[in-house]
């Protein structure tokens, strides 16, 4: 019997644009023989289902249901495709937990913690052979000393909103004099900021997902941005970044990376598909954890679809495996 699934898209941050594109890819590739899919848009104005005749139908938030032509539709599960808040930070997960509706992502606690780059680094810090860039976390209105930061960290720095996504509000600081301006820019996006030392090395992004009780690591993508770093423009402008999937790693690096990302997945109690960004440091090949994305992009140019293709399975098969594992 077919399951009735809500595909949740939109959101309340600047990342909603990416979310809409991700949902379009997912909708095109969900197996219609197994699932009936209702795409639901969530934004500041409300939660709506828009059928083909584009009459907006509001979702009843009391039980997350729809009433269509006098018929009440309840959902067997939710495919959350909202990047940023409230899809990636645990808010929606807590809501669905209270209603007893399964969803495709990490649980509320993991989603909430991993949105905070500083807290995430603290949790994974004791994994053997995993390194994190030296950093300082500061708070808006808090006591922080710019001179002390400049003494503690060596240039260049990355200044980034602690809970932001898609590299919005991020700056690479090469001159200490530019630190204050970079902090102001990041504080426009978040009340917490991470200032990190730059790690020189090859950058990769790798997908990991659960299926049949196993943790499966997708082929990694090597990221070679033409810009100074992998910023919003580099992420979403075709041709602005060279992306090689599978990325260039020798057998030892590949084996080590796969083991480390599985450990991160377990340590953070992940479920569904996540994406981990990392550097292999120049000269040492040490694995430097950058961050984890618990709702990675699924747009046509995103890493996960590229990696699924490199693994040799279709997106339809991938989403089916993902949904069977998370939604039952």
TrEMBL record:
Record flagged with keyword Cell wall biogenesis/degradation: yes
Biological processes per GO annotation: cell wall organization; peptidoglycan biosynthetic process; regulation of cell shape
Residues reported to bind Mg(2+) 2: 291, 293
Residues annotated as signal peptide: none
Main location, first listed in the record: cytoplasm
Domain (ATP-grasp) ranges: 117-324
Root EC class: ligase
Cofactor note: Binds 2 magnesium or manganese ions per subunit.
GO molecular function: ATP binding; D-alanine-D-alanine ligase activity; metal ion binding
Pfam family for this entry, one: Dala_Dala_lig_C
Pathways involved: Cell wall biogenesis; peptidoglycan biosynthesis
The UniProt record lists the keyword Transit peptide: no
SUPFAM superfamilies assigned to the protein according to its UniProt record, in alphabetical order: Glutathione synthetase ATP-binding domain-like, PreATP-grasp domain
Source organism superkingdom: Bacteria
Family as reported in the entry's similarity comment: Belongs to the D-alanine--D-alanine ligase family.
Function: Cell wall formation.
Protein name: D-alanine--D-alanine ligase
Annotated organism of origin: Pedobacter terrae
């Amino acid at each position: 019997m077919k399951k009735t699934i809500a595909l949740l898209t939109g959101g309340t941050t600047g990342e909603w644009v990416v979310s809409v594109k991700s949902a379009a890819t997912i909708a095109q590739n969900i197996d219609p023989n197994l699932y009936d899919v209702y795409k639901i848009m969530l934004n500041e104005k409300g939660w709506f289902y828009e059928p083909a005749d584009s009459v907006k139908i509001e979702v009843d938030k009391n039980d997350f249901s729809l009433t269509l032509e006098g018929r009440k539709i309840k959902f067997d599960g939710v495919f959350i495709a909202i990047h940023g808040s409230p899809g990636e930070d645990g808010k929606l997960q807590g809501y669905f937990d209270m209603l007893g509706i399964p969803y495709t992502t990490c649980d509320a606690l993991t989603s909430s913690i991993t949105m905070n780059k500083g807290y995430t680094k603290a949790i994974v810090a004791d994994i053997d052979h995993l390194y994190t860039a030296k950093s300082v976390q500061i708070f808006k209105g808090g006591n922080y000393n710019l001179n002390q930061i400049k003494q503690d960290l060596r240039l260049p720095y990355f200044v980034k909103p602690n809970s932001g996504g898609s590299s919005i509000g991020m700056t690479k600081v090469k001159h200490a004099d530019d630190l204050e301006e970079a902090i102001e820019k990041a504080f426009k996006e978040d009340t917490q900021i991470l200032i990190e030392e730059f790690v020189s090395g090859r950058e990769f992004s790798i997908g990991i997902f659960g299926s049949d009780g196993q943790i499966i690591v997708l082929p990694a993508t090597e990221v070679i941005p033409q810009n100074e770093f992998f910023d919003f423009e580099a992420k979403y402008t075709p041709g602005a970044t060279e992306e090689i999937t599978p990325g260039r790693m020798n057998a030892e690096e590949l084996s080590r990376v796969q083991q480390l990302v599985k450990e991160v997945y377990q340590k953070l109690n992940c479920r569904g598909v996540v994406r981990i960004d990392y550097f292999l440091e120049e000269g040492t090949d040490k694995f430097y954890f950058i961050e984890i994305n618990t709702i990675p992009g699924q747009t046509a140019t995103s890493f996960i679809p590229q990696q699924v293709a490199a693994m040799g399975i279709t997106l339809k098969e991938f989403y089916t495996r993902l949904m069977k594992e998370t939604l039952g």
